[in-house]
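User: For a reading group we're discussing how well predicted structures match intuition. Take UTP-monosaccharide-1-phosphate uridylyltransferase. Before you show the prediction, I'll give you the sequence so everyone sees exactly what went in.
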Amino acid sequence: MSETPPPAPVKLKPFAKTISKDEMALAKKLVDDGQGHLFAHWKAGKESKKIKAQMAALMQLHKSYPLEEGLLSYTKNARDLLAVSKAGKNPLEGWIPSVPQGESLTVGTPEYDEFESAGLPLLSKTGFVLVAGGLGERLGYKGIKVELPTESCTEICYLQYYIETIIAIQEKYGTVGKTHLPLAIMVSDDTYEKTNTLLKKNKYFGMDKKYVTIMKQEKVAAISSNDGKIAQDEADKYKIECKPHGHGDVHSLMHSSGTAARWLNAGLEYCVFFQDTNGLGFHTLAASLGVSSKLNLVMNSLAIPRKAKQAVGAVCQLTNSETKEERTINVEYNQLDPLLRATVSADGDVNDPKTNFSPYPGNINQLLFSLKEYVENLKETSGVMAEFVNPKYADPAKTIFKKPTRLECMMQDYPMVLKGEDTKRVGFTSVAADMCFSPVKNDVISGAQAQASGTHPAVAFSGESDHYNAVAKIVRSVGCKVQIGEKKTFNGVTMIAGPKIVVSPGVCCQPGEYKSTFAGGGNVMITGGSVLILKGKGKVTINSLKLDGALIIDTGGLKSETVFDNLVVENKGWTEKAVVEAANNPEWVKMRGFVMEKSETVEIICSHHAGKPYKWGEGSVGGGVVEPKEGEEEDPKWAWAKEVKEEEAAGGEGGGGGGGGCCVIS
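Assistant: Thanks. Here is the predicted 3D structure of UTP-monosaccharide-1-phosphate uridylyltransferase, as structure tokens, for the group to look at:
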């Protein structure tokens, strides 16, 4: 069989008047790079608009890739990485794993309180980076994920919740008029306009727009072969096939936009990177800052305990057997077990008998950086992360791809570009997943399948349930008696459905703040089917509460302060009502499978009273004061509270009591 003749030389000169000088220079470089196929279909005097559009797309790809040679650097990296992939080389060969430095903490313990207290003053010196590049199509939602409601009781969207938390931190721990905590949001072509529209429509949810930075991530060219050929659209050769480069681009954007350097110059000391639909991520921020400060870390990964062989990447320290170089990085779960077996443990990834968890904590991609070292490193690297490629081969010889691939990078691979002693200053803060990690990333079918196989469903219903349960767990940790609600099933996913406790960040934004709000400890009792919503920014002290129903307390503004003693609320409350799939409901409702049916509610509106605490129940606010009902203490609905052991309510039977009478509202 005769060999295929080489393609005819590409002649670009006839197009000198169609494209600019810069575009012509790039086209010539691409031809020299083996990319002549990109121009082989051009015909002089024809399709000039399409030619111009194609060159504009190539120029954009060239300029947006952060290395010096732009698109030429990208194709070179592609060839190098594809050669490694074809050869089947193990990138972890020669590295020995060990457990990295870090702290494993439990909310409500003295150790946790110590780290949180150390981190609280650092909250006002922290910038926030939201990695929000995706649409919600995978979830069954056509909009952007950050506009999805965190839960159904208040319907506050994720972006509003994040911004209100940042504002609360600023007001609680900063200096009035001087502290302005910034937010940077990484978006994509798909989400850029919708994110801006959401912010503008809602007046940035109360944040000064001067302190909001939108950073748009560009795509990279798809690669169709091992020799690094740039892929064209099969239906239209004038179009370049492009794909996402991965969330590792956030680092180069923090550098190229000048955001990281600007924050450092403004006096900030840390920056935290967080995900778009993990509403629990900020609960443990102060404790993580405390760990970073104590261990002098340049990078701190918020992590969760993971079971051995669980499908979650693990935070590991790796030491090169020859050079003794150290790296603390994320190792994918399917790489960890064989790596351990080949080096330090014949048993591989197994649980520690003392904790029943793997010694290697699970990475959840919430990262905390020391800003000074971060900015210095960005100057050295331009924020370019190590790339990888994962082609799907169509033949055993690995010469043909099933479909075009692309280079990718991940933000958690930042330690791979560290040098010197900074490589030893990477660690973790591990906290139970039910306190810090419940992403919404699956559609209802995938979520139900995941739960059936023993994995967290990661759907809208589970995210909402976990949002309530995390707050309930914090309230229990300060000694309150909070009953566990019943399990309910919607869209094939089963979760604990109560009690539904929603606390505005303006009231409490870190676990330690709950102690003064729920000061009554064991005198605060909430049944498993109840709803408690604390809105606003005011200071509230609940010394005694019995809640069996739905209660909303609007705490008022920053200067408002209200004390509640012997408050009893009993009503029909709220509950989930299943929706018919074909019904005309919003997509975010269909994703959950229910609407919140609000039968009866008590709402108490607090207000400012001349700079002094107002003891609720001394006036006519909220329905007045009545005498306790005879035999109320023996009501069987509260029998469960008497059975709560002191060790289950960490604060014991402390606090509260005192005047004001017993306010019974039903």
